[in-house]
Amino acid sequence: MLGKILVSTLAVCVILNVNGDRYRDIEQAISAALEIVTIRRFASIPRPLIKDPANPVSQRGALARRRENQEIVAKYGFAADLVETATVLYAERHGGRLPNAEAFRAAIAPFCPTKIAMCENNCRYRSADGSCNNRNHPEWGTTFSPQARFLPPDYGDQLYIGITPRFKSVTGHRLPSPREISNSVHDAGMTAPRDHIYNINLIHFGLVVFLDVISTPLLQDGDENIVCCIGDEPVKRPACFPFFTLPGEFSHTCRSFVRSEMAPSQGCIPGPRNQMNQKTSYLDLSLIYGNSIEGEQRFRQFGSGHPDSFDAILNIFHVIFLRENDKILRDLKHLGWNGDSLYREARKILSAIYQHIVYTEYVPAVIGQEAMLRYGLKSTRYGHNTMYNPTRDATTSNVFATAAFRFAHSNFDTLENDVIEGFSPETFQNYSNLVTNSPSSYTLFTRFQSKTDRFMTDFGRNKVWESEPRNSVDTMSFDIQRGRDHGLPSYNRWREYCGLRPILHFGKGIMGFADHTIGAIKALSSVYRHPNDIDLMSGAMAERHVSGGIVGPTFACLLGEQFALFKTGDRFFYENDFYPTGFTKGQLREIKKQSLSSVMCRHVNVPAVPQNAFISPKAGVPLIPCMTFPKLDLREWDLHGTY
User: Fold this and answer.
1) Is the CB of residue 412 less than 8 Å from the CB of residue 455?
2) Rounded to whole angstroms, how far apart are CA atoms 235 and 238?
3) Residues of the signal sequence (predicted)?
4) Residue numbers of the domain that contains 399
């Protein structure tokens, strides 16, 4: 792969049939950038800079940041890096002015990877990589695409391109260290408050949704990982954005932080850096079935769409959905389905059940009924509800992936911690058997999750991925730093975006904090110099919850907007009445009878469960015998005509 890239990039001579120094300058900028990026990405790196496999950041990256296809990630990352570097070189020679977009696009074309999709007009099933969902824009929502922006990024360099992350206060000082913010705003001590309604199913299922629509790889040196600290000293290189902690908190004061991989825009037009998403931007259970033709083949051969199952290794619902898929396959086979259509129809049915659970049970629990209505997220009880809009791009947004949908990081509790600390494929298999085949699986329903708020337990802040004493990750610090790496604007900018009043001073009076407690205000004011400095993650997590939800108004807005896009921008959404992608009225009726409780009853060893699988019976709701929940009756899919 490396040889192909070097030969193709160094052997191509960019020739433009355009006159003028400006266009020759674009060629020169690209030529110079080509040499810089090639050396930066593929030059030999000294061994001390290669990440130790035992490093906690490596372990975390292996789980949540792995490269799903090294060659494709490298190709798109190289192109994006080339665009960014050439843009900066050109701007430096022209007083900060960016190059002409069309001229730049023509000059960069030999190095710009293109996505060529052959779309069938009457395809019954969605593609593995998300292509052709939108017929007018077949690349929307596809794998290895740039994450979308609700607001322009706020980077730290003068061009706002992204070569430097957000790092400066509006006062001119440096922003506070993420660890300092974590200590001041997010420290819950050894234990965090518990929820009084929702059980740990909510965080487990939420992880499925998160891993279904987002996976951001990190920058690498060729095939090698990077560290950004040697002992207490930072390594100065473009891929690094380390931060510092107090002496004695961790094994070293320098905390290694590698920036996210970037992806080029369609046509490689110059502009701000956008981070890559390896997943499809659709609720399609691609974390189980795979997001490529190769992934689909692996699933059909081995029962997993991924070669190593890292993405779902913490999650019991991965096992439950695999078992439900097997059941659907068996039932369809008895009804005359076979071959490729058997596999694809089973995926279509299970994905529809999954989407139904997301929009009728999961999202309402998170953002509340008022936000469900505001963003048009409610599903109808019966029949079709076509809301597809071909002008709506469902691409997963940067703010959703980097901040809003990380609200669940405050929900860490002992059960999840035990699984994380004992992370390995073998222990996960044992855990899955324990939960699905023993009476202790009742814990999934009865145990309250930690309360969703600004607080994180000692484990979440000091013990995650601990390979040895004081060698671990502070999850909240990394979330804050990741937001800065991605150029997320400050909390106040997002409040304005959502139609909320911006905060002008650290008080509760007019133009002050309206959605925070006195304690939260004091904590934020103790570490930030100005309200416009507050990071989105910290400001939004400190908000009071919206009515009926578990997040504050800012995250309710951002989550609501993204889930609206997942619904209205998906031509294959389960409620759409389209032929041949949709379901018949009878088929949709059977899908809408299903709930998470009915699915879990089929695959978890419990005699009775709450009507809503996310609500603990300790909250006062009754237990319903599993035998009373609707079965999944697939007679509406009968090809024999025997029913």
Assistant:
1) no
2) 9
3) 1-20
4) 45-212+224-637
In 3D space, the residue among 8, 205, 33 whose CA is nearest the CA of residue 113 turns out to be 8
At 194 the pLDDT is 87
Distance CA 179, CA 170 (A): 20
pTM of the model: 0.90
d(CA 171, CA 521): 19
Residue labelled with tokens 């570490």:
527
Q: Which residues contact 601 (CB under 8 A, 6 or more apart)?
A: 609, 626, 629
Instruction: Spell out the residues 6+ positions from residue 304 whose beta carbon is closer than 8 angstroms to its own.
Output: 288, 290, 298, 322
- Taking the C-alpha atoms of residue 265 and residue 149, their distance in angstroms, rounded to an integer, is 12
In sign, the C-alpha dihedral spanning 245, 250, 255, 257 is: negative
- In this prediction, residues 538-556 reach a mean pLDDT of 98
CATH number at residue 193: 1.10.640.10
Residue 176 lies in a domain: yes
Sign for the CA dihedral angle at 44, 48, 53, 55 comes to negative
93 CB neighbour count, 10 Å cutoff: 11
In angstroms, the CA 618 to CA 615 distance is 8
Average pLDDT over residues 309-330: 77
Judge whether 586 and 636 are in contact, CB under 8 Å. yes
Q: Is residue 430 pLDDT above 70, yes or no?
A: no
Residue 466 pLDDT > 90, yes or no?
A: no
Assess if residue 24 is contained within a domain: no
Q: What is the mean pLDDT of residues 463-474?
A: 75
In a domain, 23, yes or no: no
**CA angle, 62 then 68 then 74, to 5°:** 105
Sign of CA dihedral 385, 324, 636, 332: positive
CA angle 590, 591, 593 (to 5 degrees): 65
DSSP for 293-352, written as a single string: HHHHHHHHHHS-SSSS-GGGTT-HHHHHHHHHHHHHHHHHHHTT--HHHHHHHHHHHHHH
pLDDT at 298: 80
DSSP label at 580? T
- 496 occurs within a structural domain: yes
CB 259 within 8 A of CB 485: yes
The share of the chain scoring above pLDDT 90, in percent, equals: 70
| Position 525 pLDDT exceeds 70 | yes
Our count of domains for the chain comes to 1
Q: Is 243 in a helix, a strand, or coil?
A: strand
In the predicted structure, residue 67 carries a pLDDT above the cut 70: no
Q: Are 74 and 113 in contact (CB under 8 A)?
A: no
Q: Which has the closest alpha carbon to 368: 379, 356, 355, 377? A: 377
The answer to whether the annotation marks 409 as part of a ligand binding site is yes
Q: Half-sphere exposure (CA, 13 Å, Cβ side) for 254?
A: 15
Query: Is pLDDT above 70 for 415?
Result: no
